[in-house]
């Protein structure tokens, strides 16, 4: 009789260990991204470089071509062609 109870408890213990192990494995693999899902997400986003324009850091006007400069405090600014002479007078060098 004791052997039957002990074997039932052992089986229940093994089943619970398997369930807990699967939950840990499942939670640990959440940071793995499927490559096919990542490619689909990339292609569904609009392309920034095709026809999109960014704003100039000085005049805030959208421009298709910006020249990027590093400021003395380490920020990166993008300026359009009309604001380029003002930035070069400040002594900033293009990146």
Entry keywords:
3 helices, alpha+beta, 95 residues, 13% strand, 4 strands, two-stranded antiparallel sheet
Can you walk me through this structure?
The chain is α+β, with helices and mostly antiparallel strands and 95 residues long. Helix content is 45%, strand content 13%. It has helices spanning 2-28, 35-44, 84-89, and strands at residues 54-55, 62-63, 67-70, 76-79. The strands form two sheets. The protein has a two-stranded antiparallel sheet. A hairpin with a 5-residue loop joins strand 3 (67-70) and strand 4 (76-79). The protein is rod-shaped.
Helix content: 40-55%
Q: Are there runs of 5+ residues with pLDDT below 50, and where?
A: none
Number of E strands = 4
Q: Quickly give the structural class.
A: alpha+beta
Strand order of the largest sheet: 1-2
**Could you give a short account of the major beta sheet?**
2 strands, antiparallel
Mean pLDDT, as a whole number? 83
The termini sit apart by: 82 Å
Instruction: Work out the radius of gyration.
Output: 30 Å
Following the backbone from N to C, one meets helices and strands in this order, namely HHEEEEH
The number of helices is 3
Shape: rod-shaped
Percentage beta strand: 5-15%
Layout: helices, strands, pairs:
Elements: H1 2-28, H2 35-44, E1 54-55, E2 62-63, E3 67-70, E4 76-79, H3 84-89
Antiparallel strand pairs: 1-2, 3-4
Give a concise summary.
By secondary structure, this protein is of the alpha+beta class. The protein is built from 3 helices and 4 strands; from the N terminus they run ααββββα. The strands form 2 sheets. The chain has a two-stranded antiparallel ribbon. The protein has a two-stranded antiparallel ribbon with strand order 3-4.
């Amino acid at each position: 009789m004791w052997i039957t109870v002990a074997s039932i408890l052992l089986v229940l213990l093994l089943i619970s260990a398997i369930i807990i192990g699967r939950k840990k494995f499942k939670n640990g693999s959440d940071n793995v991204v499927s490559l096919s899902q990542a490619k689909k997400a990339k292609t569904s986003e609009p392309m920034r470089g095709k026809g999109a324009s960014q704003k100039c850091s000085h005049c805030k006007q959208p421009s298709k071509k910006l020249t990027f400069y590093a400021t003395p405090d380490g920020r990166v600014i993008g300026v359009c062609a009309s604001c380029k002479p003002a930035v070069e007078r400040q002594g900033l060098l293009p990146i």
